[in-house]
Amino acid sequence: MYEFEFERPTTLADAIKAMGAEDAQALGGGQTLIPTLKQRLAMPAKLVSLGAIDEIKGVCKADDGALCLGGGTTHAVVTREAAVDYPALAALAGNIGDPAVRNRGTLGGSIANNDPAACYPAAVLGSGATVVTNTREIAADEYFTGMFETALGEGEIITEVRFPVPEKAAYQKFEQPASRFALVGVFVAKYVDGVRVAVTGASEGGVFRWSEAEAALSGDFSAGALDGMAPPAEGMMSDLHGSAAYRAHLVGVMTRRAVVAAG
Amino acid sequence: MPKDHDGIGAGSKRREDVRFLTGAGNYTDDINVRGQAYVHFLRSDVAHGKLSKVDTGAAEGMPGVIRVFTGADFEGVGGLPCGWCVTDRHGQPMQEPAHPVLAQGKVRHVGDPIAAVVAETAEQARDAAEAIEVDIEDLPAVIDMKAAVQDGATKVHDDLSSNLCYDWGFVEENREAVDKAINEAAHVTTLELKNQRLVANPMEPRVAVGDFNRSTGEHTLYTTSQNPHVIRLLMGAFVLGIPEHKLRVVAPDVGGGFGSKIFHYAEEAFCTFAAKAVNRPVKWTSSRSEAFISDAHGRDHVTRIELALDKDNNFTAIRTETYANMGAYLSTFAPSVPTWLHGTLMAGNYKTPLIYVNVKAVFTNTVPVDAYRGAGRPEATYQLERVIDKAARELGLDPIALRRQNFVTEFPYATPVAVEYDTGDYHGTMDVLEKMADLSGFEARRKESEARGKLRGLGLNCYIEACGIAPSQLVGQLGARAGLYESATVRVNATGGIVVMTGSHSHGQGHETTFPQVIADMIGIDADMIEIEHGDTANAPMGMGTYGSRSIAVGGSAMVRAAEKVINKAKKIAAHLMEASEADIELKDGQFSVAGTDKSVAWGDVTLAAYVPHNYPLDEIEPGLEETAFYDPANFTYPAGAYACEVEVDPETGKVTIERFAAADDFGNIINPMIVDGQVHGGIGQGIGQALLEQCVYDENGQLLTGSYMDYAMPRADDVPFYDVDHSCQTPCTHNPLGVKGCGEAGAIGSPPSVVNAVIDALHSGGHKVDHIDMPVSPARVWAAMQG
């Protein structure tokens, strides 16, 4: 690591102030940032830990029934506390990394980084969630703008993510053998007004909605409705763990499995 | 009275685990010498290039910097030596390039060390290393082995005639006869395959601490090594010119080696050299990322094998051609791996009369490749057992029956590839396997899998390995520049306790538990009266270390020989004490007695007399009770066995899961069955890792694509099943005193072919006529194969 200053504010207001410094970098659970620092691939002047801000942690229910997760909530807490209200989301959180990762990593940290193989972006986009920051509310469809890219502005902090709770949902992940990130992960959620299908791990553009599948499932929520369907291989990632064609094929398989798992 | 359960054959728990599991181990990184400085190596980030500038000026002025070293500082110093010279098909010695401690003139692989900064802290050393200005004129990277040996290919070493290290033929005299047999065969099965490059990944990365005592002129190197004496000899005599009596090498607790810690590395020589140059102890601790580009890699063979059969399905000939990657330099034992550790095993468990093995060893701009668990023998086993399976499928034969028909059954058996199997029972291990693996229940299990939409496959293979490495004179004829005996000193203390100093080195094998079991058995005392010391050249006699499943077969034999000398002397003392004839003295349960009488003296009485020699035959024997023995084996040992694997393939995703795995091994006599089980479990885990997960991949520019665990897939607990392991079929080795064969590598040698054979079988059951998939048999590869 290179040298950096370190702050650990206990209020959101203090965090926003600290983030005003030049080259300040917010630190969530550090599951990506700390290894990056250790490899000397980043050189922030200041790290602002969000880990001590209680007001951005926890799980609660809004009046409209949405499940609200604080941006600083760890995967382990989501696994436990979302289990009753949104079991598919809790299951997704409970299968990220290993226990050490789940006790450190946070929802806000994950979607701020927007790793193209991370699990959470699929849940956020697949649920049509709202990302709440210290300055505004961003619809999921507007939030994810590309691989490792989001709509977040400089110094903007994710305080909460509001998940509308679907009638049915499930996430199916096919793991990359080494990292166990998603080689392909598909989140399927059935709402009164339609079905959303969000795919992570596969595309060069990061998480995306598979609209053909959504259309098919909105008419007939069954695996059979997707028979023989897969998105085009064009634009899919290709590496030593899987070709673009393989990833495209897996999107079809994992979507069908998610539909079955959703029940 | 001694306990009746801690001698040979007892499943004693590992005494060393108390310290390992409680964080009380003493690993090299735990060693901090007063006043030590830290080194950081600046390593090449390009695969091949000319070093046109290395300017250390700015780095030298950085905070905490003590000195910056470059290749120029090592111009008068020897390069890293290669311990084995292979002679090629035409009787010429291999091409042997220089291997400087720090790069001189050129860099030849990503990770090649260019400069080294010694500073007060590791972070300061790293900061300063970034301030070194390096200009490299890129040269084309030589990566593909077959392209590397084409005329006009860019040369890795300008002073060599080509990138071909050697073109080895074995047995060269058989070449024409093998060609003829293959031309005349009723059936020939051909298979082309890769045995992919692996990274050993021991849990503990490498560490070195160099220290120099200016008042005595003595150097000490603490290092993560499997063989500290070998490092002392190689580094002292060939690199730095330090005589053994001025150089102590200590390899304390070592957290796994798997071969990668056999070799003498540049960082060891650097820390030893720099400690004197800067008059400070110098420490280096590898990061995991650094390990990927500086630890010797393993395997990396590309092979074509042909198996000829007559009309009755007897094997008549085998012909192979292998390209073996050496990497950019010759690591310590690299040339021996694809030759003498590979070609000599090509007969396997079968009586094939004619065999010809051709190996072309090639230099490329990659990390050097050397021995990795099994070393040459897994590569031989894999190709042979894969081609036999393919032949059985082509001919519509039962793969077990085809193997059984061709088994060697009479021993000793001289193979056509220079080794003589002393003993074995291949039908015996196959019988054990068939029962243990419940092969008769397979079809029912397959139906059950199919009902769940999965394809189920059964794969088998046999294996044989040459262990207990090795008869010194034989390996000397084959090009080894070392002897391969082992040593032990048995020091009996006055009150009867024993310290055994062994040249074997334990880095996970459990010697501290098993070696005492042997001595306890010989004398009839508790095993906890015996301690094992190893890993310090200041204590143990010259030893050759631990690799090639040699510790109990060679090191254990040396210990037995030393203990026999101790017992013989103790009997003389006992005879004197009891005023009896030495010939009548018997030792049992820690008591010396006179045959046919009720006279006896205890072990402790005799040992005390040896050190308090008041009533003692001083005119006949010296006081004291300490003996040393060096044991040079008469032959290799030949552990063998049969393995079976059942897999399920998800036809939608190509994912393979291992449902059952059974291993029937013949290790000869066994000292501690629990530790043997553990060795087999670990070996199979690594074999499954190779078969399904691991691969070290370079791109065409020589950049390592799998430089971390994000892309290099290590096997995890949920990737492997519960194993069924059986070693009840025992044909004791005929030429060592314990009748042991060694068990450390068997699992890694014996498991990959059965896994791949099982996947191919599963695919055929689903109508996919797939002949072969290269390892790792990843979901993506299986799916691609199913697409045709």
Overview of the structural elements:
The complex is a heterodimer of chains A (263) and B (788). In chain A, 30% of the residues lie in helices and 24% in strands. Chain A has 263 residues and is of the alpha+beta class. Chain A folds into three domains: 5-49, 2-Layer Sandwich (Uridine Diphospho-n-acetylenolpyruvylglucosamine Reductase, domain 2), CATH 3.30.43; 54-163, Uridine Diphospho-n-acetylenolpyruvylglucosamine Reductase, domain 3 (2-Layer Sandwich); 168-262, Enolase-like, domain 1. In chain A, α3 packs antiparallel against α4. Chain A is globular. The N and C termini of chain A lie far apart (47 Å). The model of chain A has no long low-confidence stretch (mean pLDDT 97). With 788 residues, chain B is α+β, with helices and mostly antiparallel strands. Chain B has 20 helices and 28 strands. Classes of the chains: A alpha+beta (263), B alpha+beta (788). The interface between A and B is medium-sized, with 17 and 26 residues.
Give short descriptive properties of this protein:
heterodimer, A: 263 residues, alpha+beta, Uridine Diphospho-n-acetylenolpyruvylglucosamine Reductase, domain 2, Uridine Diphospho-n-acetylenolpyruvylglucosamine Reductase, domain 3, Enolase-like, domain 1, 3 domains, five-stranded antiparallel β-sheet, 10 helices, 30% helix, 24% strand, globular, B: 788 residues, Aldehyde Oxidoreductase, domain 4, Aldehyde Oxidoreductase, domain 3, seven-stranded mixed β-sheet, 28 strands
